[in-house]
Specification:
- The chain is α+β, with helices and mostly antiparallel strands.
- The chain has a single domain, classed as Flavin-binding protein dodecin (Dodecin subunit-like), CATH 3.30.1660.
- Helix content is 20%, strand content 51%.
- Strand 2 and strand 3 form a beta hairpin.
- The longest helix is centred in the N-terminal third of the chain and has 15 residues.
- It is elongated, with a radius of gyration of 17 Å.
């Protein structure tokens, strides 16, 4: 049996939503092990002088917790 946890992060890019997603996932994987999936909850843009200057995403990442219940049995 495995147990997962979900965290929410935000990421920003001057290039695109895809780049913001990629950067957010790459950064999260430096701090959290076993990331298995992402759900993009929100996409926003920052606009200055009528032009998009930043792409922002809020996403939930799912990661599997270390240790198996089966490994913890002493029986």
């Amino acid at each position: 049996m495995s147990v997962a946890k979900v965290i929410e992060i935000s990421a920003r890019s001057a290039t695109s939503f895809e780049d913001a997603i990629d950067q957010g996932i790459q950064r999260a994987c430096k701090s959290v092990d076993n990331v298995r999936g992402a759900w993009i909850k929100e996409q926003k843009v920052t606009i200055e002088s009528g032009r998009i200057t930043a792409y922002r995403v809020n996403m939930q990442l799912t990661f599997v917790l270390d240790g198996d219940a089966e490994d913890d049995d002493d029986d």
